[in-house]
Design brief:
This protein is mainly α. It is built from four helices and no strands. Helix 1 crosses helix 3 and helix 1 packs parallel to helix 4. The longest helix has about 55 residues.
Length: about 150
């Protein structure tokens, strides 16, 4: 590999690493709300970047230098530009959190009301069962009938 080609590969690997840093920065505000989703999206992005680096940029000849360039560029982007863009990324997620939160809040309120209702129903059934059981074991007939 010529030095010019090696520099081109390192440049592309660094660009790919910076793109991964941008994806990580974009997903950083999401980690507080749903860490599993953010991690899954980043792993998919990393897998795609790894395949592009290995088979596209390096043409199947993956070496340590491009991998290191990608990792360093990702880290450098996250520590510099990613920190500066964090308020922008947080602002992008706010309407999404609000829109996704509406159905979740409605579902939560509905489930809370249903839980309270079922708690009353089962408390009433338990009380009825206790009263019938007490009457039956005390020698009384169930449902108010007299015993013969």
């Amino acid at each position: 590999m010529t030095p010019a080609a090696a520099l081109r590969v390192l440049g592309w690997a660094a660009g790919l690493g910076a793109a991964l840093g941008a994806v990580y920065g974009l997903l950083r505000p999401l980690r507080g709300k749903c860490a599993a989703l953010a991690d899954a999206v980043f792993v998919l992005a990393f897998g795609w970047a790894w395949l592009v680096l290995g088979f596209g940029i390096c043409a199947g000849d993956l070496r340590l230098a491009p991998v290191a360039a990608m990792a360093l560029a990702c880290l450098a982007f996250d520590r510099t530009v990613g920190r500066l863009l964090l308020p922008v990324f947080s602002t992008l997620w706010r309407p999404i959190f609000f829109l996704l939160g509406l159905p979740c809040r409605l579902l939560q309120k509905t489930l809370q009301k249903f839980y309270k209702f079922m708690k009353k129903v089962f408390a009433s059934l338990k009380k009825s069962g206790t009263m019938l059981g007490d009457r039956f074991y005390a020698g009384g007939a169930p449902h108010g009938r007299k015993q013969q």
